[in-house]
Amino acid sequence: MKIILASQSGVRKQILDKYNIDNEVIVSNVDEDEVKQSLIAEGANPLSISKNLAEIKSVKVSNKNPDRLVLGADSVISLDGELINKPNSREEAFEILKKLNNSKHYLISSVCISKNGAMIWNHTDSSELKMKNFKDEELLQYLSKIETKILLAYGVYQIEAKGLELFEYVKGDKDSIMGLPVREIISYIEQFRK
Length: 194
What we know:
Layout: E1 3-5, H1 10-18, E2 23-25, H2 32-41, H3 46-64, E3 70-79, E4 82-84, H4 90-100, E5 104-115, E6 118-131, H5 136-144, H6 148-154, E7 167-171, H7 174-177, H8 182-193
Parallel strand pairs: 1-2, 1-3
Antiparallel strand pairs: 3-4, 3-5, 5-6, 6-7
């Protein structure tokens, strides 16, 4: 049984492949910024934003692929209840790292599985991370090691790469922090394999 991954995230695809979950990628092309702004205007919190985005992506691709299981996913950073977006530039990335510097924040990863254009399952996982205290020069030096394309696509820290060095502690599942709470996904899709 092959599931559809409604995400262009290379890391999410790698996680599915690592756990031998047969998958193909069909990108949803949802305008995430537009959805986020609309949800923020309605007073949504980061957890709700993450859940909604995962569902919107999943349902959109599911509408065009009936009878298939479609997995949508989204991850957001919550700092004191404030949504921290992916940077649009190196300058923004630096400002985000300065905000997170020496602070505890949460990485919220939501997944949704849809079939026939409707959500049939979802799960949200929250991980706690505490960033070490860095000088501005150290943050700039860290950012200089990340390609701009990767920085803008995946955000300010890549936990699977050098990003782990930024943290005093990380409490949570590594796969979930990288964008996919895969154990829960496996547990749910097992029923379709029988």
